[in-house]
Amino acid sequence: MKERVFSGMRPTGKLHLGHLIGALNNWVALQDAYECFYGIVDWHALTTEYAEVSQLRENVVEITLDWLAAGLDPGKSTLLIQSRVPNHAELHVLLSMITPIPWLERVPSYKEQQVQLSNKDLSTYGFLGYPLLQAADILVYRAKTVPVGEDQVAHVELTREVARRFNHLYGETFPEPRALLTPTPRLLGLDGRKMSKSYNNCIYLSDSPEEIRGKTRMMITDPARTHRSIPGNPDVCNVYDYHKVFTPAEKAREIDEGCRTAALGCVDCKGILAGNLIQLTQPIYEKRLTWEARRNEVMDILESGTSHAREVTEGVMRDVRHAMNVRYDD
Fold this sequence. Notes:
By secondary structure, the protein is mainly alpha-helical. The chain folds into two domains: 4-187 and 296-324, 3-Layer(aba) Sandwich (Rossmann fold); 207-289, Tyrosyl-Transfer RNA Synthetase. It contains 13 helices and five strands. It has helices at 17-30, 42-49, 56-70, 87-96, 101-105, 108-116, 125-139, 153-170, 209-217, 238-246, 249-260, 266-292, 298-324, and strands at residues 4-9, 35-40, 77-81, 145-148, 178-181. Helix 4 packs across helix 7. The chain is elongated.
């Protein structure tokens, strides 16, 4: 049997280039070698966006369109909605009985996000406990592999600790999952800040070639290069950071030299980048248009995957209930 993988994304809107290079490309590559479960983790979205839920259902559809367009295949991977698989919640409750609060408070993102999202009231159990819900998401499938970026390694380590504690108390039930690190190149938003929908500084997988050209023209470059004849410094240029990710290495070196010698202007530099981004995203954009025309099938795909997920997790939960002696059906 193939080793099982679980990973998820919060449905907060359409996906952008950061999602593609940070997760989606890797998820697609894993489909043939692993038994993959990919979840739209809508409960996780509520941990910070509990006050604004009007777009939640629509965002679930949008993220699925992006997944399908990027190459996730429901014939190879199980695509599911977290909240439609109640066993995620049941395992979360049971794990909360044995998980010390200091384990949750020391997760790095707990304090970091409180600072970053200081405009929101995050003094909720849901926010404190979301790393444990993540652990339940992984363990309820007995996933052995979790593809993550470096910022999520601490969450996988917490999952391993929770699995060890459960196995020590109740007998061997869960494997200790390992993190499969996804190399995530440095990619800021178009304005040099963190890439975020709220900053309106993203290139989305659903953007047309015209939209990509327009957004690329507005990107921030070396602030000291105020005229075409002035040499630039690619080391402080956000456009060049994109070239390092999306432009072949030899061409990127030419751009570096052209910038430093003023042989290449910012307008032409941005034009080259736009062409590369369009070449990368055009197949995704066109495939997404095809899925848009079949939008009514998206929920059917999710329901089919979610139904399979319920079957798989119910077998795991029978073992969990038996181990904790919370079973009353025999």
